[in-house]
């Protein structure tokens, strides 16, 4: 009796494993395949990226600004670096003339 129940259990497990095999999945018909490819082929138009103009001067609290190795304060905003002008306290967009300008060197 026990051998029959083990044999039935083994057969049931084999059928279960065989039925879950991917090769046994039904084939897609042509109408289903064409409907899916047309649905995938329709694309939505890409959203246009609106670029905001980069301000030349900003006002930033010195507590949130970072210090450079030589002691100058700078602030990064949206991928642009602003350096502190020590004469008026505002932060200006970087340009090469800041290296020689005495207003951007800390006193």
Q: How would you describe the overall organization of this protein?
A:
The protein has helices spanning 2-19, 30-41, and strands at 57-58, 66-67, 73-77, 80-84, 91-93. It has a domain at 57-104. Strands 1-5-4-3-2 form a five-stranded antiparallel β-sheet, with no helix packed on it. 28% of the residues lie in helices and 16% in strands. The N and C termini lie far apart (99 Å). The chain has 107 residues and is α+β, with helices and mostly antiparallel strands.
Question: Could you outline the blueprint of secondary structure elements for this entry?
Answer:
Blueprint: H1 2-19, H2 30-41, E1 57-58, E2 66-67, E3 73-77, E4 80-84, E5 91-93
Antiparallel strand pairs: 1-5, 2-3, 3-4, 4-5
Major sheet description:
5 strands, antiparallel
Q: Kindly report the average pLDDT value.
A: 82
Strand order of the largest sheet: 1-5-4-3-2
How many strand segments?
A: 5
Task: Give the tags.
elongated; 107 residues
Short summary:
28% of the residues lie in helices and 16% in strands.
């Amino acid at each position: 009796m026990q051998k029959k129940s083990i044999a039935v259990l083994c057969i049931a497990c084999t059928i279960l494993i065989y039925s879950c095999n991917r090769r046994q999945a039904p084939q897609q018909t042509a109408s289903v395949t064409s409907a899916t490819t047309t649905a995938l082929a329709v694309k939505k138009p890409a959203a246009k990226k609106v670029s905001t103009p980069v301000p030349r001067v900003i006002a930033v609290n010195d507590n949130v600004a970072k210090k450079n190795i030589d002691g100058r304060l700078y602030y990064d905003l949206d991928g642009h670096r602003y350096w502190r002008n020590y004469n008026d306290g505002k932060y200006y967009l970087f340009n090469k003339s800041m290296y020689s300008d005495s207003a951007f060197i800390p006193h």
